[in-house]
Amino acid sequence: MQQERDALIVGAGPAGLALAIALTDAGFTATVFDAQPREALAAPPEDGRDIALTHASVATLRTLGLWQRLLPEEIGCIREARVVDGDRQDAALSFAPRGPGAERLGWIVPNHALRRVSFAAAAERPGLRLIDRAHVLRVATEPGHVQLDFETSPGLPQQLQGRLFVAADSRFSWSRKQLGIAADMHDFGRTTIVCRMQHELPHHDVAYECFGYERTLAVLPAVGHVSSVVVTADAAAAERLMQLSESEFAMLVERQFRSRLGRMQLLGERFPYPLVAAYARRFVGQRSALVGDAAVGMHPVTAHGYNLGLQSVASLVHALCAARAAGRDIGNAAVLAGYERAHRRDAAPVYHGTNAVAKLYASTGVPQRLARQLLLRGAQHLPPLKAAITARLTGRGGLQLPGAAV
Ligand SMILES: Cc1cc2nc3c(=O)[nH]c(=O)nc-3n(C[C@H](O)[C@H](O)[C@H](O)COP(=O)(O)OP(=O)(O)OC[C@H]3O[C@@H](n4cnc5c(N)ncnc54)[C@H](O)[C@@H]3O)c2cc1C
């Protein structure tokens, strides 16, 4: 049996690695297991996802030293967001940052870049061990410790013990099931296609969400004359969109976007993502916790999945640091209950609000169309609601480590 670690984390995705880095920076030890080979984790391939980041998330990424590792050409900026209903030209709702020093609503960074910098930072932390090609066989959470059985070569089982087990292995989490934690899954029957497109006219750092009646189109500003394009349609229609030639697809996007950016052209591949949301019934178990998508896997329409994942990391690290400061065991049920409460408070309104928006915009009936128009026009003329949404994007916060300058 090898030496006991503070945390055993399954999943070296952006959430699992952020947690491992934060814990080791706070003085804990952590081992992360991932099924993928080291080379794929170190240089992840493009997956088409561009991640819109809030101010609090960027503060967390800075604290962890990840933001500083991104290349300037990987960081896009969102100065304004406009929401368009149906086939209209004008925006029904718009958001811009307010207050002194507020220059942008958020940033946009490719997912593979976030994964790359997370891995590079993790590889440099002495207290952090990463076990790749790991096939986790069993997770046993006992009152006094947790034990993980795994193999990296078939037929050669190994064991590791720790004080806390963390599941960070995606919304379809295998370890969540091992812990006996149920999740409410919602299959939207729709698919999101993501890709990058080049365009003739500048985007002026404005993000668009166009709620058309057949499909939803989001156009998010990347660097230069390039945007991240997100098309959501029912699964059968999405399959047809994937089969269109590059130029047919580009023309369709350009037409739905009413040529706001002039001629548009595909850059690289289109990536389809069938939309399934997940919400774990509990975020903690005996000596165990869930973070990232394993806790809450969001519909991407409100661009909150990873932002919420970083919030789960910040809440868990906060609870564990407070426990240590009070001389308590980090696997203690009361300590984990604190994390459960904090993350449920953060996640519940965002998750249920996002699902309500996604369902409303997937319906094409006349009452739903009217409800959409009323909702958007109402929100535009309801300054407190707009201010609350803007504050959620631009609000301060994020992870704070003991003794770290944020
Ligand atoms: C189209 C799209 C657009 C999005 N846009 C945004 C956005 O704008 N803003 C935003 O905040 N979020 C966005 N998201 C959400 C964001 O991508 C996710 O929330 C985030 O990637 C989740 O990170 P994670 O580490 O929890 O899980 P994942 O990224 O799923 O990583 C899980 C890791 O666990 C490993 N793993 C899985 N099973 C096992 C196992 N059994 N054993 C060992 N390892 C295992 C995998 O190899 C992987 O490395 C978007 C998502 C999609 C699909």
List the helices and strands and how they pair.
Layout: E1 5-10, H1 14-25, E2 30-33, H2 38-42, E3 50-53, H3 55-63, E4 76-78, E5 80-85, E6 93-95, E7 106-110, H4 111-124, E8 128-131, E9 135-141, E10 146-151, E11 158-167, H5 174-178, E12 183-199, E13 206-211, E14 216-221, E15 226-234, H6 235-243, H7 246-256, E16 264-280, E17 284-285, E18 288-290, E19 296-297, H8 305-325, H9 333-362, H10 366-380, H11 383-394
Helix pairs in contact: 1-4, 1-8, 8-9
Flavin-adenine dinucleotide binds next to helix 1, strand 3, strand 12 and helix 8.
What does this structure look like?
The chain is α+β, with helices and mostly antiparallel strands and 406 residues long. The protein has a single domain, classed as FAD/NAD(P)-binding domain. Helices cover 35% and strands 30% of the residues. It is built from 11 helices and 19 strands. The chain has helices at residues 14-25, 38-42, 55-63, 111-124, 174-178, 235-243, 246-256, 305-325, 333-362, 366-380, 383-394, and strands at residues 5-10, 30-33, 50-53, 76-78, 80-85, 93-95, 106-110, 128-131, 135-141, 146-151, 158-167, 183-199, 206-211, 216-221, 226-234, 264-280, 284-285, 288-290, 296-297. Strands 1, 2, 8, 9, 10, 11, 17 and 18 form an 8-stranded mixed β-sheet that branches. The chain has an 8-stranded mixed β-sheet with strand order 6-5-13-14-15-12-16-19, sandwiched between helices. Strand 9 and strand 10 form a beta hairpin. Helix 8 (305-325) runs antiparallel to helix 9 (333-362). Flavin-adenine dinucleotide (FAD) is lined by residues 10-16, 33-36, 49, 51-52, 111, 134, 136, 168-170, 174, 192, 194, 273, 292-293, 300, 303-307, 309.
